[in-house]
Amino acid sequence: MFALSDVSIDRLRRTLGNTGQRRAYFVWRNGQLQCSNPQLDTWSQHLAEHRRDFDAHEAVFLEFGQRSGSLLGVFLHRTIRGQGAGGVRRWGYDNLGDFLSDGLRLSRGMGRKNALAGLWWGGGKGLIAQDNLQATADGRRDVYLDYGDFISSLGGIYVTAKDVGTGNEDMAQIFSRTRHTTCVAPEVGGSGNPSGATAKGVVCAMEAAVSILYGQSLGGMSVCMQGTGNVGAAMIRDLLERQVETITAFEISSSLQQELSLAFASDPIDIRLVSATDDTCYRMACDIFVPNALGGILGPDTIPKLNTRLVCGAANNQLLDPERDSRSLRARNIDLVPDFLANRMGIVNCANEQYGWLPEDPAIERHFDSAWEGSIPNVTREVFELAKRKGVTTTSAANRLADERAQQPHPIWGHRTATLIDRLMTANWQRG
Fold first, then answer.
1. Catalytic residue among 113, 125, 162, 200
2. Alpha helix segments (H runs only) across 264-360
3. Comparing C-alpha atoms, which of 229, 384, 337, 341 is closest to residue 292?
4. In terms of CATH architecture, what is 195-392?
5. Is 125 considered catalytic here?
6. What is the pLDDT of residues 81-107, one digit of tens each?
7. What is the pTM of this model?
8. Using CA atoms, how far apart are residues 254 and 325, in angstroms rounded to an integer?
């Protein structure tokens, strides 16, 4: 039986190459998924039938870069609130099915995150399939130049930012080829690295959750952190300021583990170097488990191991299957702050760079302040209260609130992105 997980990225390259093209699209219109090329009709059908991931997506655009030959993708969830906005992730994918599933899940998460954060942006995500050519400096530069050209060719339907595998210099390469970019360097008018804001937002969500659920503060609590990196390091500092009792962090990078161990040598922190398959972090007794690594880490194999009261972290798509796994957590009396509620501040920090930048910007700081109805503390309370009132998981409650708000049209432009997508189709964008 045909499955997209059986389709290699090279097979897509060959299929398009046989028609003299290096681009393809899948667009949802009038209850049907339209694709750019008759040779992709079967693939289109299987993509549409993958309901869990394809839910309400408006479009997927794919291109093999002209310089690099690497597979590039843009995924758009609901965009009635505005252009799709989300970071570009560079990652190694075993097959086309994994590439498409990751992009669809991440863009849906971004749409919900943007809506809950009150941003006038839709759901969007960019992907770059990592390959051996990108291991060289020239190869890496070429793929990000290609990605900038790819975004420009789409005419403004998607605005990109940083994500896993993409660094500051990479963003500079993208910015050199397109204006549809945020998270660019301060020297060219951007907000720079959003890691500190992301960390502050997750800790803010933790504070709100423990206050709402347990009537406590973070002081005296134990924290187990999976993954550190830029966000984790900033989070450690914020947690220490709130006088948590202990922090145990698990890190797979030896250089980062050594760096952080030295930086926090005098603090109540244990930063352990582990292998990628080590499961000690799940089993450790703690008040708060903090997933900061990649998504899909909480599922049938790991949830039974957890020894915590609360899950709240910076990673996207922490649950392998959101509904099933949120129910499993609830059955074990483990509370969950949905990731797209807690980690909003990365996109908040850089989403509106075109309107100018201020230190301690009130438009940013209000997200931590309970005086604003849309702040992290208030939305966290709203989610937990709705979940209790309706007898559903916090994942279901947050999805319900986010999906309602994602249907609010942009106050000026309405659903302009749909018009732009239609124009790309009629202009035969796939022919380059």
1. 125
2. 280-283, 322-331, 339-342, 345-351
3. 229
4. 3-Layer(aba) Sandwich (3.40)
5. yes
6. 999 999 999 999 999 999 998 999 899
7. 0.91
8. 31
